[in-house]
């Protein structure tokens, strides 16, 4: 009985991970594009990217999730709840990831661009070979934080009926009258996932750190 | 007189209301070392940045080997390959080793095969005496070593001319010598160089010609001995007097003791 109980929730873990593994990379690609446009794209693109970020970060994720869900799964696109939810989370996350990467690009500094151009690189080459390798290193610790936020926010798609961890815990709580066991199991799984993610990214950060002393 | 390699003709730079410099004419001929001296904030560094198009100009022209590089539609990135630049604060690429710093222009800009680029980069590091530091990252190098790697990085591109923007100003006094030494060697090997510096000893010893710049214009220029011993303008005299005062006193003290 208990085994069935727990294994039912654990099966939701695969869906939680799938939602996260769609939302995070989507948000990264989109957020990186926005950060680059904001930093190097000139006045108009800079304003547009800033406005996008301002709006996305100014509204609760669950509200955005509903809005985007009704757009993405409407007549126009007709995506499943799983895909609409995952992509919506990715869109919300892109604004936060944009800010993380924008800060990292600023931290690299204008001098590196100047030096790269002085060697004869184009702007694009400078960004690709000089700026990004440094900015991404700087971005790992704050990105690790964002990764754990997206992992936890993936629970929001339960509101769209996607059977991930929280959804299943809720169902079990209702059918078995064991809310503490149901939600406790869910909490433990989230905690372990976040813990593992942060440790893995700490390791990556340490591995890619540039040596400073002889 | 041979044709100049790098030439500025009535070059003008304005930031908003501020005239940084106006009507500057400079000719750098092959193998020549020109040193620009002058008080801070007189536009010397901006002038260098304008000459390799890192900063746009507001008037006048720059020529490289007789071709106007300030002309509209000229390929700026292509131009900069041929004009090496060394910065006050080194600006090495922090994520690359010394060797990587010197190689990257060769592999990415010149599209040289890796092995060949590595060989060439090692040669350049040897030239600045840092072959044994090839696998060190900038964070593991002293300021003087970093600046020498920066010089090697610029040299690797086989530039027609090298620009130095106060290359020793950010260095601890005991590290200045090793950088000036490399530059002196370059001058002796007839590298064409345009140097902005406050190192008067270097200027006097190494320069073929010295330009004194103040408030955005060239006040005076000439051979080092002429300029140092018989400056024509009051301002030049005052500046040289001020900057050599301390140094001169020390020299006298030394002479007195011995």
Overall description:
The complex is a heterodimer of chains A (214) and B (258). By secondary structure, chain A is mainly α. Chain A is built from eight helices and no strands. Chain A has helices spanning 2-40, 42-58, 61-72, 81-108, 110-119, 123-153, 165-176, 179-208. In chain A, helix 1 (2-40) packs antiparallel against helix 2, helix 2 (42-58) packs across helix 4 and helix 5 (110-119) packs antiparallel against helix 6 (123-153). Chain A is flat, with a radius of gyration of 20 Å. With 258 residues, chain B is an alpha/beta fold. Helix content of chain B is 41%, strand content 24%. Chain B is built from nine helices and ten strands. Chain B has helices at residues 44-51, 76-81, 98-109, 114-127, 143-156, 173-188, 200-206, 224-229, 234-257, and strands at residues 4-15, 18-29, 33-37, 59-64, 67-68, 83-86, 161-165, 193-196, 209-214, 217-222. In chain B, the strands form two sheets. A six-stranded mixed β-sheet of chain B has the order 6-7-8-3-9-10, sandwiched between helices. A four-stranded antiparallel β-sheet of chain B has the order 2-1-4-5, covered by helices on one side. In chain B, helix 3 (98-109) packs across helix 4 and helix 3 packs parallel to helix 5 (143-156). The longest helix of chain B is centred in the last third of the chain and has 24 residues, at 234-257. Chain B is globular and about 55 Å long. The mean pLDDT of chain B is 91. Chain A binds chain B through residues 111-112, 114-122, 125, 129-130, 133-134, 137, 210-214, and chain B through 52, 54, 77-78, 80-81, 84-85, 87, 89, 91-95, 104-105, 108-110, 136-137, 139-140, 153-154, 157.
């Amino acid at each position: 009985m208990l085994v069935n109980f727990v294994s039912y929730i654990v099966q939701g873990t695969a869906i939680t991970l799938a939602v996260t593994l769609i939302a995070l990379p989507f948000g990264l690609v989109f957020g990186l594009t926005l950060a680059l446009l904001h930093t190097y794209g000139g006045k108009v693109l800079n304003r547009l990217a800033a406005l996008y970020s301002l709006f996305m970060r100014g509204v609760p994720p669950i509200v955005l999730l509903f809005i985007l869900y009704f757009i993405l799964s409407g007549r126009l696109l007709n995506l499943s709840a799983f895909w609409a939810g995952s992509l919506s989370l990715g869109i919300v996350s892109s604004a936060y990831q944009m800010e993380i990467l924008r800060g990292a690009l600023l931290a690299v500094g204008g001098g590196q661009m100047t030096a790269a151009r002085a060697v004869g690189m184009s702007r694009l080459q400078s960004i690709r070979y000089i700026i990004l390798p440094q900015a991404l290193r700087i971005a790992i610790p704050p990105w690790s934080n964002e990764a754990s936020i997206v992992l936890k926010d993936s629970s929001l798609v339960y509101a769209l009926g996607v059977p991930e961890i929280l959804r299943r815990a809720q169902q079990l709580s209702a059918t078995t009258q064991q809310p503490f066991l149901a939600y406790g199991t869910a909490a433990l799984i989230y905690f372990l996932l976040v813990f593992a993610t942060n440790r893995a990214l700490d390791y990556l950060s340490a591995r890619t750190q540039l040596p400073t002393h002889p | 007189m041979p044709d100049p390699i790098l030439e500025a003709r009535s070059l003008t730079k304005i930031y908003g209301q501020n005239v940084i410099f106006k009507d500057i004419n400079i000719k750098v001929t092959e193998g020549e070392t020109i040193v620009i001296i002058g008080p801070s904030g007189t536009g010397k560094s901006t002038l260098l940045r304008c000459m390799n198009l890192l900063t746009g100009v507001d008037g006048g022209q720059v020529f490289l080997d007789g071709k106007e590089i300030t002309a509209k539609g000229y390929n700026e990135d292509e131009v900069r390959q041929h004009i090496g630049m060394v910065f006050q604060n080194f600006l090495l690429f922090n994520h690359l080793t010394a060797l990587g710093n010197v190689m990257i222009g060769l592999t990415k800009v010149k599209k040289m095969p890796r092995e060949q680029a590595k060989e060439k980069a090692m040669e350049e590091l040897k030239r600045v005496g840092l072959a044994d530091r090839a696998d060190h990252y900038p964070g593991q190098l002293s300021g003087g070593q970093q600046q020498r790697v920066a010089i090697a990085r610029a040299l690797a591109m086989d530039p027609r001319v090298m620009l130095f923007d106060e290359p020793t100003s950010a260095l601890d006094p005991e590290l200045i010598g090793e950088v000036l030494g490399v530059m002196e060697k370059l001058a002796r090997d007839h590298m064409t160089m345009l140097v902005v510096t406050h190192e008067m000893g270097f200027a006097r010893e190494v320069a073929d010609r010295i330009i004194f710049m103040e408030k955005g214009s060239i006040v005076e220029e000439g051979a080092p001995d002429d300029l140092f011993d018989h400056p024509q303008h009051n301002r030049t005299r005052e500046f040289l007097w001020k900057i050599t005062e301390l140094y001169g006193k020390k020299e006298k003290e030394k002479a007195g003791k011995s």
